[in-house]
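input
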Amino acid sequence: MGEWVATTQVAQQIALFDKCRSFTKAKEVQAAGLYPYFTPISESEDTVVKIGGKSKVMMGSNNYLGLTHHPKVLEAARKALERYGSGCTGSRFLNGTLDLHERLEEQLAEFTGKEAALVLSTGYQANLGLVSGLVGRGDVVYLDKLDHASIVDGAKLSFGDVVRFNHGDLAGLERLLGREDRPKGAMIIVDGIYSMEGDIADLPHLTQIAHRHGAALAVDDAHSVGVLGPTGAGTAEHFGVTDDVDIIVGTFSKSLASIGGFVAGQEYVIHYLKHNARPLIFSAALPASNTAGVLAALEILRSEPERREALWTNTRMLAEGLRALGYDTGHSVTPIIPVLVGTLENTFLFWRKLFDAGVFTNPVVPPAVPASQCRLRASVMATHTKEQIDFALDAFAGIGRQLGIIS
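output
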């Protein structure tokens, strides 16, 4: 009898794990020495990291303003760690709300030009909580097909209808919104800056479309905060349409040098989300050290506009240098600069050779992009030196010619 039970359990496990046993692609790439993921960094010095004892110029980070090593950010985190301890050990809804969270929410609301804000433990959770919390039965959410995975997953968790429109196809979006059978409650949500393309959402036209059709407009400014706008407040500020955008979502894991996320909007909407966003209610709160670090980073962002100016100077330097070499960088107009390579095999090989030459980039392959549009993604920081950018361009030049990607 015991032998029969054991055999049955093994058979069940085999059925469940068949997909795992047949997943060999990653191991094949590992065996070829071209695997680019889960690379352990042993030390970080702002624009330079150490991997396997060797220094690499970091051209793959979202640390746009270079604040992860700023003395004020580190000191604020240290003081909060000593005062509040290492974790909140509970959700915001119960025992996990700190005065630091509320102070940050007040400052984020002011910064984004909204009535109120809500801090969550990750940027992913912010989108998850926003979409699944607001879009219910009888509602519909419209997604750009290049929206971030957190938006897509939030839509999957909602009980509403989900409609996706082609990237940037606002005429197509308006046709969808104009359907007579469309549910009354509607949300349009887009990325401010698209993380794989580096282009910017057309918010002026999106706000007009949303108003015409009575839809709420939400913008994920994960890559826009600290980058776009006269004060770095993001895409809505960049276009001067802050009052016309209903909800702004952001993350702390990029320009604000920590981890966590937020949703900003009208007070009654934020109040509703505080009591209905499951990712907020059922997750432990953002630790004090991270929250204090974000508060310090936000202060630096607002008081040192020269950092944003340096970011854009470096962006132009790298982007123009790559284009001068003959690379296709798509429609990027931001510090996210895709370098189109083509096939997956060439992309991994290109990544490896750049890595060995001392330049860290990120390969972007399916399902994030179509199989024919694989690319390397470079990201610029305010603290990159001219020498580091020149070093990266020299590596791109030599390796690109070696692989026949440029002539």
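quick obs: The mean pLDDT is 95.
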